[in-house]
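Quick start: read one record
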Amino acid sequence: MGDAFKALASEPRRRILNHLSNGPMTVSEIAENFDMEMPSISKHLSILKEAGLIAQQRRGQNILYYIVSDNLANVLYGFLTPFCPDARKITKKRNKSGGDNE
C-alpha cells in the first residue's frame, strides 16, 4: 500500500491517472498533456507501474498504458475501510458477491 500512496503523492502522476481514466494511451499521447520532457513522463509511468496502479501492453509498435482499476480500488478500499463506514459497507458487499476478501 505504501508504494501506491507514494505514487499518488505526486500531482503529475495523479494527472496521468486522470488522463488514463479515459482509456489506454501511449507515452506520446500522455506527454501531449504535459509541459515536461519525455524521460520525466516515462519515469512517472515507471513509478505508477511499480506501484501496480497501471500496466502496459504492446500493440504493434506502440506500448499502451492503462489503469489497473482493481489494484487502485483495492488500495483505496484497504486504506479507507478502518476509517470510513461507507468503505466498510462496500467491502462487505464485494466479499458477499464473491469479490476480493481484503
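The radius of gyration is 15 Å.
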